[in-house]
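Let us work through a complete example step by step.
Step 1: write down the sequence.
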Amino acid sequence: MIRTAALLALFLAAAAPAWATDVTIGRATEQNALDPLFSDLGNDVSTAENMFDSLIRFDSKLRIQPALAVSWKLLDPLTWEIELRQGVKFHDGSDFTAADVAYSLKRARNVPNSPGPLSSFVRSVKETEIVDPHTVRVHTDTPTPLLMDMIGRIFILPAALGPQVTTDDFNAGRAMIGTGAYRFKTSLPGDRVIMEANPDYWGDKPEFGTVTLRFLANPAARSAALLSGAVDLIEQISPSDIEVFQNRADVALFSAVSTRIVYLAMDQGRDDSPFITDKDGKPLAANPLRDRRVRLALSKMINRAAITERVLAGAGEPSGQIVPEGMGGYDPALKPMALDPEGARKLLEEAGYPDGFGVTIHGSNNRFPADSQLTQALGQMFTRGGLKVNAIEVMPYNVYAPAATQRKFSLFHFSYGTIGSSALNGLTGVLATYDAAAGTGSLNRARYSNKQFDAVLGLAAAEFDETRRSHLLAEATRVAIEDGAILPLYWQKLFWAARRGYVVDPDRGEATSVHFVHLAR
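Step 2: predict the structure and record it as tokens.
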């Protein structure tokens, strides 16, 4: 039975100790939901991971660290045995056991209305066998050498919540019971989430008594809040503010080159794409984005260097693939597409669109620095390339992401941050053929589909030899990029700023959570 919010609040108030220091974090984007299994989008994860633990965690350099799982081993190609941490308590005082892992992996398979489903992470799980209270065996349908990269990221909930628990129960606070370093206290949608230190946390003692996440979508408002002392640190520094923070003694600037790829997605799964027209604004009988030549023409219209140098003020690196150098599946031969207006014109002519066609470009306005300006810049580049840009529309990310998942756009930018050792999860989620039952393509909002890509990716997913797997992932990436599956734009360089007394450990995975915030020593 789900405990009521009032009883949970009473329990927390009675148990809360006194901590000397609090912290308020200024975030750019609010979570879509407090439900930790609602989505894998960064804004949701950055909130959930303060209060909920997973089997493993990644440090700021994306190295795997044990969390609720202390060890794991392969028993045979289809069976993994995972030893769980003992002595862990949920926030309501109940014990963490293997039953909670089995429950959470099952629930992650299907959470309604998710803008970033977790189904791809559990796609190969056939059964979670409870061996004893602190041992589980995960049986898979196919060999899954990177299983812990996948299921290890699923936040663990108490099985006592039962199958009837809903995302609304989490949003209302009734089901906010995790094992994390901080416990849910209250939230004010559109404004803040407040958490308190968990005195019974199994890991290192929490550094802060109260953690407040303030949601400040406007970059200028975030900067002003930091300088006034209303918040202690902020994320997603506007490129125009970087120099300001570099020259102040009362704040410190922190940065990291992330693994997040910002890309342009193109609706390829239907002929009646909603925002594609002829030059006169009338609907087209066929969707030109389904033609590889058109997709590559669009790529040749984009000046990636101008985006990173002018729009981002250097806070990005042009990209030609889904993961950066150093990760499994990176192909050094895949370079960012060069600006080539003449080549773009020839491809459009070959495809039967010598005079171009009409498009509307959609984007977010608070997901990452200069995302609104990026949308405008793409519109200008496509106009110069011979397309008719009917409109440019931007909106808050918590509105934009669900709309993109519901396939309401034709041409839109999105992003994916790889957390793990290779490109496998990104390729499976963003580019594999959409199949809800199989858990592939859960983030494939453009409905790209390529049988050759799927076949090579399937081989990579089942390959235990790391070198061979990396080669197969690179081959799959090459197939998709040369087909114009998505148009990679750039990898982000991230910036945080903090008041004196606070230190940020810059996370390549982009999380702005209290795990990466510390008191200056």
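Step 3: interpret the result. The chain has two domains: 5-215, 258-493.
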